[in-house]
Design a protein that fits this description.
Belongs to the KAE1 / TsaD family. The protein has ten helices and ten strands. It has 331 residues and is α/β, with parallel strands linked by helices. The strands form two sheets. Strands 3-2-1-4-5 form a five-stranded mixed beta sheet, with helices on both faces. A hairpin with a 3-residue loop joins β2 and β3. The model has no long low-confidence stretch (mean pLDDT 96). Bound molecules: 5'-O-[(R)-(carboxyoxy)(hydroxy)phosphoryl]adenosine and zinc ion. The site of zinc ion has 4 residues, from α4.
Length: 331
């Protein structure tokens, strides 16, 4: 079965075709990052309007790349939430109306399930069960995953998500949007000079808290006015060090407590090379395996939605929704 995947929850329009027999056939993405950069963050109304402009050309693009026509589509999967309501409505209404016209079923996908399963799109995918670290702009969660739809939440953030902490800290340091990649790049030229706290590092549970870290950065920034380039890079270095140390330690605790030896990392922060370096070393020491999606599938994309939809459809023996009504679930 061939599933068209539609992602429009935030500032990326992602389309993809996934074949349950042959795997990923094609994917295409339009990122609105440049459009929102001058505002320092995503402007929801602009995001919605841009999704409208992109969704049809991108659909044509993936069909052409895969050498398929609309008639080859067996089902349509789309992100129903969480995300920006206007942005979600574009993908949702597009997916449901196209499915209605083709008389094929739809599968509404939870955006986080898309991220969670993204590493399974790679060659030699990790086998169930595994521990998943999901670190994106909106979430920081540790989960035990026993199969499609079998997710147990082990730990969550009590305040900011990891990506959110990167973005807010980058803003404090005067870096552009999106902050995560910019901060990470700057940290490469920094060194160990400051000491930031490691909130909840030894809390005995698997929860995270990153907002105190951001406040500690603000204090440093205020103490070192005017900020010079070296100080900015050194603060970035220590911030990245603190976040990646916490994430790594909690992942290792989760593996130990569940007795599993398989770790899967996903979400935008999963693209962070320092995090990958630390996780690779820690899992190697404990003889565990760690898997990541390819870099372009760490952040939002249509491939993960097509894949999660295809897995759901398989589990439902091909019976998706056929009522063609729709609503979004922003939260
Ligand atoms: O998964 P994603 O595309 O969107 C959400 O569903 O939230 O993640 C975006 C987040 C942003 O906060 C961005 O700053 C962060 O992931 N991010 C990074 C890196 N690349 C993206 N954070 C740290 N290092 C990176 N290399
Ligand atoms: Zn996302």
């Amino acid at each position: 079965m061939i599933v068209l995947g539609v992602e429009s929850s935030c500032d990326e329009t992602g389309l993809a075709l996934y074949d349950t027999e042959q795997g990923l056939l094609a994917h295409a993405l339009h990122s609105q990052v440049e459009m929102h950069a001058e505002y320092g963050g995503v402007v929801p109304e602009l995001a919605s309007r841009d999704h409208i402009r992109r969704v049809l050309p991108l659909t044509e693009n993936v069909l052409k790349t895969a050498n398929k026509t609309l008639q080859d589509i067996d089902a349509i999967a789309y992100t129903q939430g969480p995300g920006l309501s206007g942005a979600l409505l574009v993908g949702t209404s597009f997916a449901e109306s196209l499915a209605f016209s083709l008389q094929v079923p739809t599968i509404n996908v939870h955006h986080l399930e898309g991220h969670l399963l993204a590493p399974l799109l790679e060659a030699n995918p990790p086998a169930f069960p595994f521990v998943a670290l999901l670190v994106s702009g909106g979430h920081s969660q540790l989960m035990r995953v026993d199969g499609i739809g079998e997710y147990e939440l082990l730990g969550d953030t009590l305040d900011d998500a990891a990506g959110e902490a990167f973005d807010k800290t980058a803003k404090l340091l005067g870096l552009g949007y999106p902050g995560g990649p910019a901060l990470s790049k700057l940290a490469q030229s920094g060194k160990a000079r400051f000491k930031l706290p490691r909130p909840l590092l030894n809390s005995g549970d698997l929860n995270f808290s990153f907002s105190g870290l951001k406040t500690a950065v603000l204090t440093l920034v205020n103490q070192h006015q005017p900020l010079d380039a070296t100080t900015t890079a050194d603060i970035a270095w220590e911030f990245q060090e603190a976040v990646t140390e916490i994430l790594t330690l909690k992942c290792m605790t989760a593996l130990r407590e569940t007795g599993l030896d398989n770790l899967v990392v996903s979400g935008g922060v999963g693209a962070n090379s320092k995090l990958r370096e630390k996780l690779n070393a820690a899992t190697k020491r404990k003889l565990c395996k760690v898997s990541y999606p390819r870099l372009e599938f760490c952040t939002d994309n249509g491939a993960m939605i097509a894949f999660a939809g295809a897995m759901r459809l398989k589990a439902m023996h091909g019976n998706g929704n056929r009522n063609y009504g729709f609503s979004v679930r922003p939260r």
